[in-house]
Design goal:
Helix content: 10-25%
Largest sheet: 4 strands, antiparallel
Shape: elongated
Radius of gyration: 22 Å
Order of helices and strands: HEEEEEEEE
Oligomer: single chain
């Protein structure tokens, strides 16, 4: 009987090793400044989003819109050259209100993810 158990164990390991592994190539947001859904008292000078994987700068964008869906960022959205997981854009002095951040990124392996979030300035 112990021999049969060993054979089953070896077969189980071989089957598990042959299964395809999940791909972890997508870049998902890790955290952001201002934080997702936050209410802040002072207008930020930048929006910054850190991702779980390195981004492809040529295929990664970020924009910030006001409540009327008008673009309000300075148009300098980019992947930070010193940190390829950081997508950022500069902001002018914003007034009180709700702002929407829209991002569209490609990880260096080509997987694309998109998303958005809001923050509120009191």
């Amino acid at each position: 009987m112990p021999c049969r158990s060993l054979i089953y164990a070896v077969i189980s390991v071989l089957v598990l090793a042959a299964l395809p592994r999940a791909s972890y190539g997508h870049a998902f947001p890790d955290h952001a400044e201002p934080r997702v859904g936050s209410t802040i008292s002072a207008a930020p000078s930048q929006v910054r989003i850190w991702f779980t994987a390195a981004l492809e700068p040529a295929f990664s964008t970020i924009i910030v819109q006001n409540a009327a869906s008008k673009k309000v960022d300075k148009g300098d959205g980019r992947v930070n050259p010193a940190d390829p997981t950081l997508l950022e854009t500069s902001l002018p002095t914003l007034s009180s209100g709700t702002y929407k951040v829209i991002w569209n990124v490609a990880a260096r392996d080509g997987h694309r993810t998109i998303g958005d979030f809001t923050f509120v300035i009191k």
